[in-house]
């Protein structure tokens, strides 16, 4: 799927994508600077979109590590399956609230998310954040890129520590919340 078709999908489903454009390289870098890829065995990405964050993760995955990418848009999934044919990258066309169905008894070192939580009902938000926290190892981190600082309070309901940073180099400017 070409970039113009991906943009059409993005704008056609603004309620589920929650973005005006795809994540900038600066935002991706800022999010992934919080990931220690050395020794990470399983990483989960929520909201794969056009694959910009996925690519950043795949480029740094160690041999033997696995990436599970959750995306509800079939079009985005089809595009990502072409972009990321590696055996250790699984593109999953399902809601992030169903993480537990795909873990096979494992826990993730990181959950990296660009989900538009501001567009979700409070119940769905809580369910996805709860599933993300449950999916993590004891030393795992949940990393969220978002446009609203107010979401910090939502994450604090589930995580003891929520550290926030900001980047202007994204449209619109974005926050990165690192939760433990």
UniProtKB/TrEMBL annotation:
Which SUPFAM superfamilies does the entry mention?
S-adenosyl-L-methionine-dependent methyltransferases (SSF53335)
Which GO BP terms sit in this record?
Answer: methylation
- Please give the Gene Ontology molecular function terms for this protein: methyltransferase activity
Task: Report the superkingdom from the record.
Answer: Bacteria
Q: Which UniProt keywords apply?
A: Methyltransferase, Transferase
Q: What is this protein called?
A: Phospholipid N-methyltransferase
Q: Which organism is it from?
A: Algoriphagus ratkowskyi
Q: Source organism lineage?
A: Bacteria, Pseudomonadati, Bacteroidota, Cytophagia, Cytophagales
